[in-house]
C-alpha cells in the first residue's frame, strides 16, 4: 500500500463524529450547521434533478454556475473574473487536491500556516511536494512576516493560505495579506487560497481576497465552497478561480479526480448565488448569535474562550482555564463523561502541536447549545 495512507488514521472530524453517534453525545466537533439551508437552493436542485439533464455536464462545470460564481465575486469582492476562469469541483477539498496536484512538481516546497486543515499535508506529499510550516500562536494566531520570509528557500513554489483560518477562527488583516502578496511577487510564488469561510464572518468584518492584492491576479488560485456559503456541507460543490493559464492546468488535474459534479446540484447552487444574498447575510448573523451564546456559556463555566472572528468555531485555552490536561485528554473525557464532542486543535498540526486548545462548533440550534453548555459546565465544575 501507499505508505502515506497506510500510516494515516481516520480524520479527526469523522473520528469524533463517530464517537458522538456511538455515545449519543452532542456533536460540537465536526463543522456542520443545524437547519436545512436555503429553500430556494434545495428547490432548484430538486427541480433540476427531475426536469433537466442527469448526464455528464461539462468537465469544468455548467456554464450557468461558472457565470454565477464570477458574478457573485464581482458583486461581493470586486473581483473581475470571467466564467472561463472558474472550474467547478466536487467540494473544496477536491479543489485543493486538483490545485496541488496540478501545480506541484516533485521536490517543490509549499509554505503552510499551522494550525491547518488536515488534508493539506497528505495532499502536498502525495503530489511529491514538501510542506514547510509557518507556526501561528494562540490567542491571536497572527502571521509574522519575518517568520514567513525566513521559511522561503530556493525550492519554494507555492503558498497555501486558509483565510479565514480554521481552526483558529481568525481573519488575516490587510497588512498580513499585503505581506504575503509582496512575498509571492518577490519570489515568483503561486498562492492557493482556501477561502471557503469567506461569507462566515462576524462583527461587521469583510473578507479580503488575496487575489485582489497588487501582483496577485495572475498568481492566485481562489477556492470557494457552496457548502459553506449555504450551510449545505453535504452538497460538496466547490470551485477554483484562476487566470486562464492556471485554470487550464487546474482543469487537467480535476478531470482525473472527480471529472465533474452532479448537474442538479450545480444548477441549484447557481440559482442560490444569484438570489440568496439575504439568506447568506441572515445566516451569518444567526451564526454570530450562536457564537456569542456558546462563548458566554463557556466563560460562565470558567473556561477561557479565545476570540472568534469567522468560521463555525471558537476555541478554549485549557491552560488559561486552569485545567491540567492536554486537548486530546479533554476531548476524549468530555465526550465519554459529559456527552459533548469537541475537536483537539493539536490534530491541526503536522509538527510540534499546540496541545492546550480545544475547538467547539457553535452553528447549532439554541437548545442544542444550551444543553451542551449545561453538560460542559457540570463536568468542568467536577474537575476543580
Short characterization:
This is aspartate transaminase. 43% of the residues lie in helices and 15% in strands.
Structure report:
- The chain is an alpha/beta fold.
- The chain folds into two domains: 3-37 and 278-383, Aspartate Aminotransferase, domain 1, CATH 3.90.1150; 39-276, Type I PLP-dependent aspartate aminotransferase-like (Major domain) (Aspartate Aminotransferase, domain 2), CATH 3.40.640.10.
- Helices cover 43% and strands 15% of the residues.
- It contains 14 helices and 13 strands.
- It has helices at residues 3-6, 12-23, 39-51, 63-77, 92-103, 120-126, 145-150, 174-187, 226-229, 244-254, 263-275, 277-300, 327-338, 366-383; strands spanning 26-27, 86-89, 109-114, 130-135, 156-162, 190-194, 220-225, 238-241, 304-305, 313-317, 340-341, 343-344, 357-361.
- The chain has a seven-stranded mixed beta sheet, sandwiched between helices.
- The longest helix is centred in the last third of the chain and has 24 residues, at 277-300.
- The mean pLDDT is 96.
How much beta, percentage-wise?
5-15%
The CATH architecture of the largest domain can be named as 3-Layer(aba) Sandwich
The DSSP helix count reads 14
Shape: globular
Rg from Cα: 20 Å
The number of distinct structural domains comes to 2
List the helices and strands and how they pair.
Elements: H1 3-6, H2 12-23, E1 26-27, H3 39-51, H4 63-77, E2 86-89, H5 92-103, E3 109-114, H6 120-126, E4 130-135, H7 145-150, E5 156-162, H8 174-187, E6 190-194, E7 220-225, H9 226-229, E8 238-241, H10 244-254, H11 263-275, H12 277-300, E9 304-305, E10 313-317, H13 327-338, E11 340-341, E12 343-344, E13 357-361, H14 366-383
Parallel strand pairs: 1-11, 3-4, 3-5, 5-6, 6-7
Antiparallel strand pairs: 2-8, 7-8, 9-10, 10-13, 12-13
Helix pairs in contact: 3-11, 4-11, 5-6, 5-10, 12-14
Amino acid at each position: 500500500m501507499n505508505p502515506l495512507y497506510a500510516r494515516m488514521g481516520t480524520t479527526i472530524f469523522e473520528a469524533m463524529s463517530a464517537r458522538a453517534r456511538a455515545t449519543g453525545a452532542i456533536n460540537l466537533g465536526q463543522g456542520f450547521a443545524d437547519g436545512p439551508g436555503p429553500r430556494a437552493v434545495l428547490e432548484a436542485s430538486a427541480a433540476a434533478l427531475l426536469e433537466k439533464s442527469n448526464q455528464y455536464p461539462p468537465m469544468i462545470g455548467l456554464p450557468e454556475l461558472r457565470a454565477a460564481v464570477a458574478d457573485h465575486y464581482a458583486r461581493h469582492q470586486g473581483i473581475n473574473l470571467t466564467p472561463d476562469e472558474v472550474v467547478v469541483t466536487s467540494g473544496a477539498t477536491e479543489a485543493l487536491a486538483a490545485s496541488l496536484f496540478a501545480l506541484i512538481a516533485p521536490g517543490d516546497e509549499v509554505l503552510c500556516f499551522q494550525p491547518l486543515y488536515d488534508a493539506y499535508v497528505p495532499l502536498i506529499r502525495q503530489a511529491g511536494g514538501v510542506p514547510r510550516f509557518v507556526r501561528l500562536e494562540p490567542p491571536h494566531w497572527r502571521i509574522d512576516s519575518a517568520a514567513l520570509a525566513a521559511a522561503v528557500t530556493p525550492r519554494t513554489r507555492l503558498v497555501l493560505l486558509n483565510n479565514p483560518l480554521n481552526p483558529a477562527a481568525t481573519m488575516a488583516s490587510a497588512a498580513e495579506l499585503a505581506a504575503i502578496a509582496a512575498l509571492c511577487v518577490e519570489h515568483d510564488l503561486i498562492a492557493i487560497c482556501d477561502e471557503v469561510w469567506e461569507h462566515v464572518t462576524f462583527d461587521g468584518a469583510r473578507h479580503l481576497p488575496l487575489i485582489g492584492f497588487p501582483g496577485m491576479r495572475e498568481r492566485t488560485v481562489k477556492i470557494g465552497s457552496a457548502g459553506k456559503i449555504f450551510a449545505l456541507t453535504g452538497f460538496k460543490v466547490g470551485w477554483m478561480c484562476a487566470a486562464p493559464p492556471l485554470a487550464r492546468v487546474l482543469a487537467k488535474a480535476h478531470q482525473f479526480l472527480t471529472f465533474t459534479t452532479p448537474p442538479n446540484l450545480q444548477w441549484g447552487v447557481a440559482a442560490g448565488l444569484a438570489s440568496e444574498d439575504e439568506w447568506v447575510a441572515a445566516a451569518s448573523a444567526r451564526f454570530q448569535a450562536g457564537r456569542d451564546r456558546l462563548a458566554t456559556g463557556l466563560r460562565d463555566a470558567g473556561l477561557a474562550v479565545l476570540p472568534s472572528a469567522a468560521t463555525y468555531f471558537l476555541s478554549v485555552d485549557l491552560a488559561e482555564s486552569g485545567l491540567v490536561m492536554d486537548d486530546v485528554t479533554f476531548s476524549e473525557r468530555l465526550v465519554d463523561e459529559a456527552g459533548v464532542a469537541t475537536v483537539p486543535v493539536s490534530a491541526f498540526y503536522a509538527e510540534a502541536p499546540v496541545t492546550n486548545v480545544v475547538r467547539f462548533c457553535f452553528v447549532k440550534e439554541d437548545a442544542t447549545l444550551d444543553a451542551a453548555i449545561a453538560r460542559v459546565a457540570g463536568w468542568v465544575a467536577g474537575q476543580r
